[in-house]
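Example record

One chain of 127 residues, shown exactly as stored in the release files.
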Amino acid sequence: QVQLVESGGGLVQAGGSLRLSCAASGRTFSRNAMGWFRQAPGKEREFVAAISWSIGSAYFADSVKGRFTISGDSAKNTVDLQMNSLKPEDTAVYYCAAANLFRLTTIPMVPTGYDYWGQGTQVTVSS
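Predicted structure tokens for this chain:
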């Protein structure tokens, strides 16, 4: 099993910044990806960003490109999401997720592609 613990959510004004962090513990995989999804009230969980050191790539949702960056430490199994120029529509519960890629050569961008999830952290952007 893999345990994911997020931190760093909160309340920020539009145009501000927040940094989310996620630490994974437990079982590790030789080929994996770690990412972030978000879910606003009444909406489906949506992809935000993900990174895979195995593949050597990072993907971002179009809605956050140029504003969010993803980084981490593969040795420590941590991943951070730096969110800049936040907008009210970024308000959601943000979830950290981890995937065992097996033979995949691309990073999953749908929730079903991930095997483990954190408990979520609330991000609220006021206008």
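Notes: The mean pLDDT is 94.
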